[in-house]
Amino acid sequence: MARVGVLGAGSIGGSAAARFASQGVEVATFDIDAERVAALAADGVAAAANARELAEGAEVIFLALPNTPHIESALAGDDGLRAGLREFGYVEGQTFVLEFRFSSGQRLLTMLMSATRARAP
φ, ψ for residue 37 (rounded to 5)? Predict the structure, then answer.
C-alpha cells in the first residue's frame, strides 16, 4: 500500500489523513499549524517536520491547501515540497476549481472537494 503524505491538516486534509490512517494506510501530514498536526497523532497520523520531509517520505502527495498562494508558498524554498519531490502521483484537493500544474513534469490530479465537520447538537 502506498505511503501517503497530506499537505494541510484543516477540515479537508485532517479528515483525509485520519481516514487514510483508519484504513491502514501509512500516512503523514504537515501543516503550518502544528497543533492541527499534533491532534491527528491520536488517529495514527505521523507528523512531518516540513513539506520537503513530507514529500521525501511519500509515494503519493495529497494537497489540501486553500488557494494558489498557499500552494506556491508550500512548494518554495529548501524546506518546500518541491525540494523533496520525486517521480510519483499527486492528488490535489481544493474547495474550488484551480488550474495549477507542476513544471517538473510530475502527474497532477485536481478534483473539486468540500468538507464539513459534524457537530453534536
Answer: -65, -45
Check the CA dihedral 93-94-95-98 and report its sign. negative
What is the DSSP-derived secondary structure letter of residue 28? E
> Domains plus CATH for the chain?
4-112 (3.40.50.720)
Q: What are phi and psi of 56, to 5 degrees?
A: -65, -30
Round to whole Å and give the CA distance between 35 and 95.
22
pLDDT tens-digit readout, 48-81: 999 999 989 988 888 888 877 887 888 888 998 8
User: Which residue has cell 491502514?
Assistant: 24
- Per residue in 75-95, pLDDT tens? 888 998 888 876 654 545 444
- Secondary structure (3-state) at 27: strand
The structure's pTM equals 0.74
List of residues 6+ apart from 104 with CB closer than 8 A: 82, 85
Give phi and psi for 44, each to the nearest 5.
Answer: 90, 20
